[in-house]
Batch of 2 targets.
Target 1
Amino acid sequence: MDLKGRDFLTLKDFTPEEIEYLVDLAASLKARKKAGIVERDMRGKNVALIFEKTSTRTRCAFEVAAHDMGMGTTYLDPSGSQIGKKESIADTARVLSRMFDGIEYRGFGQEIVEELAKYSDVPVWNGLTNEYHPTQMLATLLTVKEHLGHLKGVKLVYMGDARYNMGNSLMIACAKMGMHFTACAPKAYFPNAELVAYCEGVAKETGATITLTEDVMSGTRGADVIYTDVWVSMGEPDEVWESRIRELMPYQVNKKVMDNAGPQAIFTHCLPAFHDLKTKIGKQIQEKFGITEMECTDEVFESAQSVVFDEAENRMHTIKAVMAATLGA
Ligand code: CP
Ligand code: NVA
């Protein structure tokens, strides 16, 4: 499989075989790292990591993965570059691709990372936009494969706001890999009709199914994977907290939901998660809205069914696979 020179902007651009190849490459890179094998395939290469929004996992995953393969990294933080403010995306892309071998971008609209890729001569990797989070999908798929042994036919239910990066990306990933995707949310939080139609088209080819439902009990019954994400994403205004909590609380992942799915089900989350509201922002939410848990309960998050930290670790192995494949090592 030759992915050298390709951008990684959304899973829509990749075939099921290419996605499976990246997941399996990540599994082998993970096994090699666990066996103590030091990767030295890419000494002399350098990557730029642009973050217009904050990050723990994605930044660390790119840095550790790059360093494991002998590459240098330059981190451009939300305030530390001219990108999009003083200098256009097109000019930034042309400057960075004269210096670096690959560029990661985390930010706002998908059109920004698309523009960056258009003007860049080196691979551009999407580290999260409002619309998509494709590197997270590879980590999800690897984690599901590790725990359930396969992808095809797996029933994955996404609970909460399915209009944003995580809901969109999970629906695409499931459609591509022949999985059964359910968005379980109030109607107003269903993914947009155009993307649903695209995924239904893909699903016809792969044997996947796409279901949108407001009904928690029928939606989650027999699920193999229950997935959720924060109810308010980075970049959204504080004013939306109140309505999100009111409208999405019935879609909280709690023990009743996990019991309804069954003992075979795993729970996962892209993280960060509001499961106990003990963080600084969590405490403010607790005081303001009188709640102690949000998108998932602490009980579920800490349960034996939870694989959230496996998925977090897999961010690094899968991002390493994306860089190795697209840089051609
Ligand atoms: N899941 C994820 O993208 O985490 P970060 O925001 O910490 O990178
Ligand atoms: N939907 C979340 C995902 C974080 C990884 C956000 O965009 O903030």
Target 2
Amino acid sequence: MKISQEKKHVAVFVFPFGSHPVPLLNLVLKLAHATTNNLQFSFIGTEHSNKPLLSKPHLPDNIKFYSVSDGVPEGHVLGNHPIERVNLFLEAGPENLQKGIDMAVAETKERVTCIIADAFKCANNSDTNTPLDFIPGLSKMRVEDLPEDVINSGSEEETLFSKTLASLGSVLPQAEEVVVNFFVELDPTSLVHDMRSKLKCFLYVGFLTLSLPLPPLPPSDTDATGCLSWLDHKKKKNGGSVAYVSFGTVVTPPPHEIVAVAEALEASGFPFLWSLKEHLKDLLPRGFLERTSENGKVVAWAPQTEVLGHGSVGVFVTHCGCNSVFENMCNGVPMVCRPFFGDHGLTGRMVEDVWEIGVRVEGGVFTKDGLVKCLRLVLVEEKGKRMKENALKVKKTVLDAAGPQGKAAQDFKTLVEVVT
Ligand code: UDP
């Protein structure tokens, strides 16, 4: 095969779970727009992770998608834990990724000159209450906030995923660049210095799921599930006291917690908008939807960024998925956090103890009384007012950081130089 030496060919490896693929594709789109057509991108995911991305409008011709196997053996019935899928994918990983590269090279006739791969930042220790003060800037974090797969690394419960996470510590310093989906202005300075001393090049390119400043809210009649017009109506009646509840795309809270959330929303009397997957509606207490139909709205999917930007939302009850938290930070809404797994714990701790823009639920799980207490704290009490003020300050920091004077624009330029 004749391989052209002129074009640059970037292979992009996706972590094909949850909302990981979207920010990575957005980074590639930004790179594609900032560079010439002389750069070819091969976006390598699974059929399942690529499918929703292909419907994105205005995908440039120099981004091509390739699907490799998800590693789930034929006929295998998956259990409920999302990590099972991850481990199966990782088992098939090395062979799969080579296949992805082979496919991309065969079709484009360009050898790969650069690899961009999704990765995780992590650290390890054993006692769950130990503060992470051995990492500069993370003294407020505890070992228990780390993803369980990081804590389990080296233990009997070690999985392929936890081994992979542990090995990242030694691999990342070899990367030409480590790029984070975050703003340097929001991270503790000592953490940034420490990471920069350990990595060849550490770049912060801002929130990749959002174009900032956010566009004005669309007219509410274009909103298929009626969330925005419902919020318009609530604003007139209740001001900014709607609780918006969502647990993202992956988490399925246990049935007793769904019931606790429903009971708390009903008992608190605050208006609420709940994005709840269709199949979980059956778990709601009998008569809940009818009894709360005046005060509440339950939908299978909400236009989340717009909802958070609607002035009537006073609190966001969240699982602390990073995209949800980022979308929220751009809109200045205080949070009630119920972290489930992965990076949720660290994010929840940042929200409560570092940025002071929210509160984690007592005991780490939803109970009726615990959630009512949190909702009142944020929406009624003095402490909640301070959280709102802090949330507005964070919003301003984010909007400034995303502007032309912010560091993300400079770091993105550096990334473009290396990739090209
Ligand atoms: N989302 C949404 N509407 C919903 C629920 C979720 O638009 O009703 C979006 C949300 O805006 C976010 C993403 O789904 O961009 C969830 O990502 P996150 O990182 O918060 O959680 P994950 O799904 O990865 O657990």
